[in-house]
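I need you to check the entry underneath: sequence plus C-alpha cells. Let me know what the C-alpha cell row says about the fold.

>
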Amino acid sequence: MIESPRTAREALYTLRGLTFAALEWGPPVSPAAGGAPPTLLLHGFLDHAGSWARVAEQLDGPVVALDLRGHGRSAWVGPGESYHFPEYLADVDALVAALGGRVRLVGHSMGGSIASMYAGARPEAVERLAIVDGMGIPDGGAAARDRMVQFLDGIARVRAPRPYPTLAAAAARLVSTWSGLDPAWALELAERGTRPVDEGFVWRYDPRHLVRAAVPYRQDQHLRFLAAIRCPVLSVHPEHSLFAVADVAALEAAIPDLVVKEVLGAGHMTQLDAPRALAAHLTAFLR
C-alpha cells in the first residue's frame, strides 16, 4: 500500500550529542531545494510529538514535530544532569540549522514559550510564529529561594513513574484527563508515549521533569524576547485557557506584529480538543 504524503513518519536527528525523535509529514525537508521553509511543531510539558498528529496531517508542505529532550522517544540527559530551559532553545537552534536555517515555528504550552523565546533570540531564523495557549505564565521571581529548595529536595529523591498494567489503561488515563478525547486516538498517543516495563507500561518522559525547576520563570525577561521578534505572530487562545487574561495580555502587548484567534469549546490541549479548528487557523496564518 502506498502511504499518503500526509502519513506520519518516524525520524531521528542527532543534535548536540543526543538522539532526538520526531514525526514528519508531507514531502521530506530539502534545504537545498529552496521554497517555503518547513513547519516545526513543539509540544508542551510531559507531552510528545504525537499529540500534533491530527493537526499536522492538515498542514501544507514539510512538517516536523520534535520530541523535546527527555520526552517521547528522544534521549534522556545523562546521570547527574537536569533539564534546564536554555537547553531546549539550544536543541531547537541545532534542529533549525539541520532543517536549512529557517522555519515556520509552532509551539503549544511550554513549547510556545520555547518557540517565542527562540524567535526573539534568532529572529532571522523564524519566518512565522504561532503560539497555542503558551502565553500567560505568572511571574515566579519572588519565589526564587523556595524554588531552589524544592529543586534540591526533588532531585535527591526522583521517583520512578507509576506503571499501567496495559496500554488500554494508559489510554484510559488520557481520556479521563482530557474529556472528549477520542479513545482510539488516546490509544495511539499511549502507544507512542509509553515504554514497556516488567509491571506493564510507563510514560516515556524522564521522571526528572517532575522535579521543580531551580530557576523560576521571569516575565520581565520573557518580555525582552517577545519585543525582539521580527516575524508575524499568531496567538491561539482556547476558550478554556490555563492562563489569566491579564498575564496573557501583558505578554502579547510586547509582540510587534500579532494576530489573536480563539478556538471555542477547546481547553488547554487545543490540538486534542479541536484539531480541525486549530489546523484551519494555522494553515491560514502560515500561508
